[in-house]
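Q: For a teaching handout, I want to show students what a protein-ligand complex looks like in token form. Below are the inputs, and the small molecule is nicotinamide-adenine-dinucleotide. Please produce the holo structure.
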Amino acid sequence: MDLGQIVADRPARFTDKVAVVTGGAGGLGQAISAAFLAEGASVQILDANADAVASAVQQLNNSVDGAVGRVIGSVVDVREPDQVAAALQQAADQLGRLDVLVAAAGGSLGTPRDLNDIDEDALDLVIDVNLKGTFYCAQAAIPHMRAAGGGAVVTFSSIGGRSTSPVTGVPYAAAKAGILGLTRRLAREVGPDGIRVNAIAPGLFLTGRLTGMFDAMSEPDRRSVIEGIPLGRMPDLRECVDPVLFLASDEASYITGVVLDVNGGRFMSG
Ligand SMILES: NC(=O)c1ccc[n+]([C@@H]2O[C@H](COP(=O)([O-])OP(=O)(O)OC[C@H]3O[C@@H](n4cnc5c(N)ncnc54)[C@H](O)[C@@H]3O)[C@@H](O)[C@H]2O)c1
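A: Here is the structure, written as tokens, with nicotinamide-adenine-dinucleotide included.
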């Protein structure tokens, strides 16, 4: 991934802060991690894919000035609360504190889209990684944020949890809609501690597998996707990264419990 465009011309909103990015070895997670590093934060990328973690740490060290020593990688399955708690303790110990959690680990994870093809394992995988994983990470992060005097959590919903995406199936829609309830209820509970909790709901961003899927579509199908987007184009990765960092930053200091749709207008909430 070319991170040059992601890290260029960023303000320094996170100097001396520590951000944990789950799914940090993935497409959006790695770009978000690069942006935090470029804005002065130390970053723990937490991801289940060991090879991807190693190469993401290397790429971040190579792509962001001064990143060496400020980025650590942890191989963790977000479905395992003990692993998650140990990793976040490691982030707090090694990097000094914990201010921001971006819970991006998730996706439809290669499971089928159509109802008749979805078995119990596929349903469990999607619900457990997206919804329960977000819960475990937030639950483990909150005590560290309280110790730091406040913080921000950004959860990952999706246009598939806001509307009826034809690309993803019922389990994904349920998990990503569930994340919105989690986000609001958690925001209510930890607001008095100065901890804000907001969700981002991206439309289609062409990361990894999705790039191949989009490229494999026929020209008329690709055109019909783009015609469904009022802004009339596919987004750059930075157009998801910037809203995430906004929600995590002091610029959003009076915003909690919201969902920010980042989809070029493809779904507009009432
Ligand atoms: N790309 C999009 O168009 C889009 C749209 C809407 C929502 N989202 C959401 O954004 C988030 C990131 O998506 P992406 O496109 O970067 O996907 P991605 O597949 O590139 O990255 C996801 C990362 O999560 C990690 N992961 C999967 N299971 C895990 C587990 N059990 N524990 C820890 N890590 C695990 C993977 O190893 C991977 O690195 C996901 O939650 C996805 O649902 C993406």
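A: Two things your students might notice: The two ends are 36 Å apart (CA to CA). The chain has ten helices and seven strands.
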